[in-house]
Amino acid sequence: VRNLLKKAIQANSPFAETYFALAILYYGDHKYNEALPLFKKACDMSVQFRYKYNYADCLYRCGLANESIDILIELSKNWRNNDQSAKAYFLLGNIDAFQNHKDDARRIAMDLFSIDYSSLNIENFDMAELMFLIDDYESSKILYESSNFLETADWLEKYFYCLKSMNQI
């Protein structure tokens, strides 16, 4: 598939999906610098939300947080009424937290808490991770406990840190 997509791109494919599909393959291999121009090309060819969202995510992973944030702010304007916009708003909160913009991340987390965020396809586990990043260990602990994830145990370290922070060990 990868070789076919590369050939189509070399032949100047007129379809944004061609560029997007190859970008997704590179992204999945953690080759963000190779995926970035392909996401950009897909965005230039079409205004689909998923193209812009993935481009913004890839920008962040390539160390271009400010460019990513600008796109996510635009994509998340309708976050209360649209699950795609909410996904962008949630990613914006995570990036803010990682960039140490804790007040902005906290505002986004509280906004999402003020509504039924699960109806926007945001899982309790994902919210627990965001709450952990903004140092809201109580909420993070509660959300971890209400999540149903038995596949991996990589969350346990954060969960126990929450307990320790609240003197509950």
Index terms:
169 residues, mainly alpha
Give the secondary structure arrangement, pairings included.
Layout: H1 2-10, H2 16-28, H3 32-45, H4 49-61, H5 65-75, H6 83-98, H7 102-113, H8 124-133, H9 137-146, H10 156-165
Helix pairs in contact: 1-2, 2-3, 3-4, 4-5, 4-6, 5-6, 6-7, 7-8, 8-9, 9-10
Structural class: mainly alpha
Strand content: under 5%
Biggest beta sheet attributes:
none
Low-confidence stretches: none
Q: What's the average pLDDT?
A: 91
End-to-end distance, in Å?
51 Å
Query: What's the helix count?
Result: 10
What is the ordering of alpha helices and beta strands?
HHHHHHHHHH
Helix content: 55-70%
Number of strands: 0
- Rounded to an integer in angstroms, the radius of gyration calculated over CA atoms is 18 Å
Shape by Cα distribution: elongated
What this model shows, in words?
- With 169 residues, the chain is mainly α.
- 70% of the residues lie in helices and 0% in strands.
- The chain is built from ten helices and no strands.
- The chain has helices spanning 2-10, 16-28, 32-45, 49-61, 65-75, 83-98, 102-113, 124-133, 137-146, 156-165.
- Helix 3 (32-45) runs antiparallel to helix 4 and helix 4 runs parallel beside helix 6.
- 36% of the residues are buried.
What would you say about this model in short?
The protein is mainly alpha-helical. Helices cover 70% and strands 0% of the residues.
